[in-house]
Amino acid sequence: MIRKATVEDISRIAEILxxxxxxxxxxxxxxxxxxxxxxxxxxVAEEYSDPKILENIRVYESDGIVKGLIRIVGKEVxxxxxxxxFQGQGxxxxxxxxxxxxxxxxxxxxxxxxxxxxxxxxxNGFHITDNKKLEEGTPEYKVMMERKEIEVQCLKER
Length: 158
Fold this sequence. Notes:
CATH topology: Aminopeptidase
Largest sheet: 7 strands, mixed
Strand order of the largest sheet: 1-2-3-4-5-7-6
Shape: globular
CATH architecture: 3-Layer(aba) Sandwich
């Protein structure tokens, strides 16, 4: 079930964010001070308890356990994370489809070196654009990915 996140979900959201970010980004950024110093559950929970952030989060819950989350702002997928132990079960794909159907999301940014995420988004209807920018405070680039249907629709409208 996908539902709007509540205050009761904050600690679980923080756990997922911290663990998955460490698993996915440590090899890219190679910065243990950030991975194990700055990225901590309590500060992340405090940040995500801000109503402006929390209101944009939807969680995937199954068997009484929050297994993944997606944060959507406007037409952008800002974040999508699935607990490491539940990856490969279609949860991320369900969250993306939900975002497309309910919010008509059109784009997202992903780290250029996060090839697993890029493959996932490509398999779920997005493609890499020529638009890229530096990830703030790092030497790493993020690339914009857009929904393929959007370009097709734009071409038809011309």
